Amino acid sequence: MKPLNDTVSVVTGAGRGIGREIALHQARAGAQVALMSRTQSEIDETARMIEAEGGIALALALDVADGASVEKGLARVVEGLGPIDLLVNNHGAFRAFGPIWDCDPETWWGDVEINLRGTFNTCRVVAPAMRERARGRIVNLVGGGTGNSFPHGSGYAASKAAIMRLTECLDDTTRDVGVYAFAVDPGLVRTQMTELQLNSEAGKTFLPGIQDLFAEGVNIPPARAAALIADIAAGRFDALHGRLLRGVDDRDALEQEMDRVVETDGRALRFTGLTQPKL
């Protein structure tokens, strides 16, 4: 029996890159996968790839920043495939490069809205249904700037740091019934998003470090994050709910150190050296 048989999975941003790889891994592990993206042709192609391997896929074009569209889309998933067991928020935008005074305000805010509001929109629909069933896992993708300064990618960084905190807050409201939320950083992967950073004039000007990293051969295969998320979906890393896992992690080593991570409250957004009130 495959580890994700009888699992209904939703993957946003599933039309290409990391999201497509995540969806393929879910399907190969036995899940029925709902694919979401703004571009119908891209998710249709992912669906064909899954179906060619004998899997089941449902392709739904929608804008995750549109709450009503998300509600309708997720209702269609439940109607067509059944209750949702796994939600993977992989959608993302990073188009505003440079110090904030050089960024177009609408572009900067658009990155935040797609990344953060889109994640909020999907979670607010799926999480209560998972609570009712006392079953489910939610994986939110984060990235550069989540836990450190990213001065020329401030919109992306601000949204990803917010998603990390949202993940922690969400997990604190669902873990009591065994519904767990996780953050995953896939690492630096060559995608359409990073191509914009590499090839646009703004990217070349403000993000030369990205150019250097790729020139040095840093390019994490998307299969690393996809395999990690498949393991999360199967329950392997439940002890690390509410925390950050990375595509570059050695999964066997990570499993061995889970108790230590929990004991030291690691892999989370925390102030250091300050006593915080318990809310």
UniProtKB/TrEMBL annotation:
<dbReference type="InterPro" id="IPR002347">
    <property type="entry name" value="SDR_fam"/>
</dbReference>
<dbReference type="Pfam" id="PF00106">
    <property type="entry name" value="adh_short"/>
</dbReference>
<comment type="similarity">
    <text>Belongs to the short-chain dehydrogenases/reductases (SDR) family.</text>
</comment>
<protein>
    <submittedName>
        <fullName>Short-chain dehydrogenase</fullName>
    </submittedName>
</protein>
<dbReference type="InterPro" id="IPR036291">
    <property type="entry name" value="NAD(P)-bd_dom_sf"/>
</dbReference>
<keyword id="KW-0560">Oxidoreductase</keyword>
<dbReference type="GO" id="GO:0016616">
    <property type="term" value="F:oxidoreductase activity, acting on the CH-OH group of donors, NAD or NADP as acceptor"/>
</dbReference>
